[in-house]
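Ops channel
N.P.: pipeline sanity check, posting one input/output pair.
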């Protein structure tokens, strides 16, 4: 990623909060209010593995120094043997794929190849002018919170109703999302602890729904499930109409992988009215 790459961290103080939400928060028990104490949360830009995250890597991924070294060697051999395959081979990049696939080198390599093919086809990964991405982040409707969740995952926030599809079209949106994910996966802690998301769909209109084509839906699913090596921990949807929830429950078994279906069935996605 270019050195002038803009940080995808949003400023939560600029987010609008309904008075009703504030009143609800005032009624929370003290223990629940304490979760807002930033001192209890790791920052988005961490840059190293804490002892807790190291233990998570060993427990959930089976990561050890020996296994890491062996997997990296095998991964590099597979890359070297692949023709016309020009990718990064530094430890940080390769570990993102290995951790995303729990050190299954063949699956990690397949994910990297899928990413490469998508990159060559869609060009979402190669921004020639980062000022455009800067402009979108300044609108403050997409980006990561400056602090992580309790489980160490970074928190991606998307306020869909604030997004104007006439100014930020499908390609630019994918460009921005791709930038967010690539920027965040450069942090080892994120490679292990993964991602949580808060998607606020209040204010969604027909101009947003027009982009929910089969092509776009399949593109998002393919890029998240088969390409990007992130570990997805939770998705919280705010303000989803009930008929969308019903439609989702009917459709997700046909479009998500078995692993993702299992997470959904275990309340992977929480819908908040």
């Amino acid at each position: 990623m270019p050195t002038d790459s803009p940080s995808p961290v949003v400023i939560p103080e600029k987010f609008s909060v309904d008075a009703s939400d504030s009143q609800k928060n005032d009624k929370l028990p003290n223990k629940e209010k304490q979760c807002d104490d930033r001192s209890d949360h790791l920052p988005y830009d961490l840059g190293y593995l804490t002892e807790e995250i190291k233990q998570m890597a060993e427990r959930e991924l089976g990561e050890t120094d020996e296994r890491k070294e062996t997997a990296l060697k095998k991964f590099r051999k597979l890359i070297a043997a692949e023709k016309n395959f020009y990718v990064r081979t530094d430890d940080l990049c390769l570990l993102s794929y290995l951790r995303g696939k729990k050190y299954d080198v063949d699956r990690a390599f397949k994910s990297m190849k899928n990413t490469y093919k998508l990159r060559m086809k869609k060009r979402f990964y190669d921004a020639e002018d980062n000022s455009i991405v800067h402009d979108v982040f300044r609108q403050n409707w997409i980006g990561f919170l400056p602090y992580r969740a309790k489980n160490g995952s970074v928190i991606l926030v998307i306020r869909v109703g604030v997004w104007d599809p006439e100014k930020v079209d499908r390609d630019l949106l994918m460009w921005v999302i791709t930038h967010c994910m690539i920027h965040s996966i450069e942090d080892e802690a994120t490679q292990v602890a993964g991602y949580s998301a808060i998607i606020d769909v209040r204010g969604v209109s027909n101009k947003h729904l027009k982009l929910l084509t089969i092509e776009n839906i399949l593109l998002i699913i393919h890029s998240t499930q088969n390409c990007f090596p992130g570990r997805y921990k939770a998705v919280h949807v705010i303000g989803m109409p009930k008929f969308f929830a019903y439609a989702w429950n009917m459709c997700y078994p046909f479009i998500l992988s078995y692993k993702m279906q299992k997470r959904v069935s275990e309340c992977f996605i929480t819908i908040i009215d």
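N.P.: looks fine end to end. Confidence is low (pLDDT under 50) at residues 11-35.
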